[in-house]
Write a structure and sequence with these properties.
- By secondary structure, the chain is α/β, with parallel strands linked by helices.
- Helix 9 packs across helix 10.
């Protein structure tokens, strides 16, 4: 089907949030859409809700009796996707109505430019409950830049085959699963380009877990895995910059020195002056 776009949503026991996410897909100005919802061990009525949807788009429910994790859930959707294009939506976030149409138009323009690229992404509007802010991004992200920081964010617009060629999501990653995937996608297919249209609302105001609330142990373990998979010794400052953004992470005096000698020095100094740079004697990233 021409210009069919697959949207996948992994979910587990967050029915009220899921309904909001699904409604934002159903409100898209673009058609046709294939919506794949992966219920990863849900017991809260998610399956009944999805099976009861009566809409003019193709809706597929995949239900795991036992939870396999968000990465494996996303991979199940990628394997069965029938769309020419594919993109994801977290069950606690929202698409603005023009998101898919804007992505599709931008993809066509990018193709006409003749430049090699792997995917498109967009800036995010972040709602933390007390305020709404724009999470800005750079216009393009190369293979060298993506290992320094996740300038892409949590979702991309690409094709199912490109995701498969990149190896899909790695279930072994305890955090930073999206970042790990984008590194491989960009290294495999070329730079990522931003459509800079502000079409995605990230909701961090609720009580459910997001990466910013995950344990420091999981985040540091993910950083070690990420470093082993993708980085050279000179990339350490970028990882430390990412780790320093988490309040629950304690960096070392050695880490501080690495950051102060890098392009992230201003950020490190800002954290120190604000009293938010926490240090310990434990090693974080070697």
């Amino acid at each position: 089907m021409e210009n069919l776009i697959t949207v996948y949503i992994p979910t587990k026991n967050r029915l009220d949030l899921l309904k909001r996410a699904v409604n934002s897909v159903l409100s898209q100005t673009h058609r046709p859409i294939e919506l794949i919802i992966v219920s990863d061990g849900s017991t809260d009525g998610t399956c009944d809700y999805v099976n009861g949807l009566d809409e003019n788009i193709a809706i597929t429910l995949i239900h795991n009796d036992t939870s396999v994790g968000a990465c494996a859930a996303r991979n199940l959707a990628i394997q069965v996707a029938r769309g020419e294009f594919i993109t994801g939506l977290d069950d606690d976030d929202i698409f603005l109505p023009h998101r898919l149409a804007t992505f599709l138009a931008a993809w066509r323009r990018q193709q006409e430019s003749g430049l090699r690229f792997s995917c498109l992404f967009d800036r995010r509007i972040v709602n933390d409950g007390d305020s709404v802010a724009l999470w800005d991004t750079q216009a393009s992200v190369s293979a060298e830049e993506i290992v320094q920081s996740n300038a892409v964010g949590n979702q991309v617009f690409t094709t199912p085959q490109r995701m498969k060629d990149a190896g899909a999501f790695d279930p072994a990653m305890p955090a930073w699963q999206d970042w790990d995937m984008w590194v491989r996608l960009i290294k495999t297919g070329g730079p990522a380009y931003s459509i800079q249209a502000n079409t995605y609302i990230m909701d961090i105001s609720h009580e459910f877990e997001r990466i910013t609330k995950k344990s420091s142990e999981k985040i540091v373990r993910a950083a070690h895995l990420f470093y082993e998979k993708h980085c050279q010794p000179g990339d350490r400052a970028g990882l430390l910059y990412s780790l320093a953004g988490y309040d629950q992470i304690r960096l070392t005096l050695s880490d501080l020195g690495v950051m102060l000698r890098s392009k992230h020095a201003k950020f490190a100094l800002k954290k120190i002056r604000a009293g938010k740079f926490k240090m310990s004697l434990a090693n974080s990233i070697r």
